[in-house]
Structure formats: structure tokens, C-alpha cells
Amino acid sequence: xxxxxxxxxxTFDDMHAERDYLIKQVFPELREWCEKRKLxxxxxxxxxxxxxxxxxxxxxxxxxxxxxxxxxxxxxCFLASVAVGCPN
Length: 88
Fold this sequence. Notes:
The protein is α/β, with parallel strands linked by helices. It has helices spanning 16-36, 52-56, 60-71, and strands at residues 2-9, 39-45, 75-77.
């Protein structure tokens, strides 16, 4: 069975609902589709994978880039434009 990883990327402080929807709704169906084709779907979501020591050692970017390399060619990136107003 071949492994297929997919890496989910966004800032760590937002996009939780979108990531959770993928993990709870989309990926189970996709995983089933893959299994019928003798593939194993692996989710990579660094909300679970960045350790405190990575943050302290300032290696978070390196951890993210290594995870992207492992997931090639499947990479999902969530980008958002946040408009924050200042109260008068």
C-alpha cells in the first residue's frame, strides 16, 4: 500500500474551523477513496506537530518545510485577509 501525505498549512492562530472540517468531514471520505485504491492517506497538520522545543530553538520554519517535502505533491494552504479596525 502506497502512502499519500497531505500537508495543511495556515497560521496557527486562525482557520481552525476550516482545518477541522477537512479533518472530520473531507479526509475520512478521501481516506476511504484512497484505501479502495490501495493507498494510505496521511494527514499532516502542524497544530499537532510543532513541539515547544521547536519554538524555543526557532526551528518551526524548518519543521514546516520538512513536512511539506514529505507531503509532495499534496499541499493545502489556507490564506485569509483579516481586516482589524481600531475603535475610536
